[in-house]
Amino acid sequence: MQTAVRDVLVVVKSGDAQAGALAEEIAAWVAEKGARARVVENRTDQEGCSDASCFIGREPAPGLAVVLGGDGTMISVARKMGEAQAPLLGINLGRLGFLTQIAGEDWRRPLEMALVKGFAVSRLTMLTAEVAREGRRVFKSPAVNDVVVRGSMARLIKVGVVFGGERLGGFRADGMVAATPTGATAYSMSAGGPLVHPELQVLTLTPICPFLCDFRPMVLPTDRPLDLGVEEATAEVVLTCDGQATFDLRQGDWVRVRRAPYCLNLVAVGRHSYFGKLLDKGFIRER
């Protein structure tokens, strides 16, 4: 259980007037409660905001970061705040709201509880992806949801898969998705991957439209390395992390997927359990 919070960072989706107005309201309310509050805009990696320094500079990590937006904003902030290990509380202003914990109009009570009594934190697995090219590291990124290697223009590629130093083989497909349990409800599930409880320290590996190969989605422990190699490519191949960081791959490149040395820290608030969210968002339906 975290102690009572005295320093709150409010992160707002860039260019969103509704979110900006709510951020100022929350900051004023937090100040009335005797805690320090700062409001910052979230910018993209492409705009030069790729780590916690674009939010807090050289200051210590806040006791709580309140994120206003949808799951995309939440993932963006989590990617940048991962190493800082600040607990995140998401207020949903988007559509699905699977990662965000509370609705836009219901923020006062859970935030007051956090300020006065503290809160529990769910520590969820994150990944890192590195690209090795001719013996050099040419790219590195964290991943909250997934690491995806795929071809462009609906062209097949051949992806070599090595897990824990053991080669599983080379597989022709549109691509491969390595996902965290958090990301199991995102692109991975659309590709046919399984749902995975977020408290497990595992990743899933799911092929995207495999061609003439028998490769089923796999659930793998994260205490061993996963390497994905571009063994054959007849068109462009792209690595994406959470759909937010991208890197152009070449034949012969290897993507090194590892469990990150830090976690996604989510404030445990709200009425819904993991299974309650699956039911509420339509991932599980009783017929």
UniProtKB/TrEMBL annotation:
The active site is at residue 71. Its EC number is 2.7.1.23. Gene3D superfamilies: Probable inorganic polyphosphate/atp-NAD kinase, domain 1, Probable inorganic polyphosphate/atp-NAD kinase, domain 2. It catalyses: NAD(+) + ATP = ADP + NADP(+) + H(+). The keyword NADP applies. GO terms for biological process: NAD+ metabolic process; NADP+ biosynthetic process. Pfam families: NAD_kinase, NAD_kinase_C. It comes from the Bacteria. One of its GO terms (cellular component) is cytoplasm. Keywords: ATP-binding, Cytoplasm, Kinase, NAD, NADP, Nucleotide-binding, Transferase. NAD(+) binds at residues 71-72, 145-146, 155, 172, 174, 185-190, 244. It is found in: Cytoplasm. GO terms for molecular function: ATP binding; metal ion binding; NAD binding; NAD+ kinase activity. InterPro entries: ATP-NAD_kinase_N, ATP-NAD_kinase_PpnK-typ_C, NAD/diacylglycerol_kinase_sf, NADK. Belongs to the NAD kinase family. PANTHER family: NAD KINASE. Involved in the regulation of the intracellular balance of NAD and NADP, and is a key enzyme in the biosynthesis of NADP. Catalyzes specifically the phosphorylation on 2'-hydroxyl of the adenosine moiety of NAD to yield NADP. This is NAD kinase. It comes from Fundidesulfovibrio magnetotacticus. The gene is nadK.
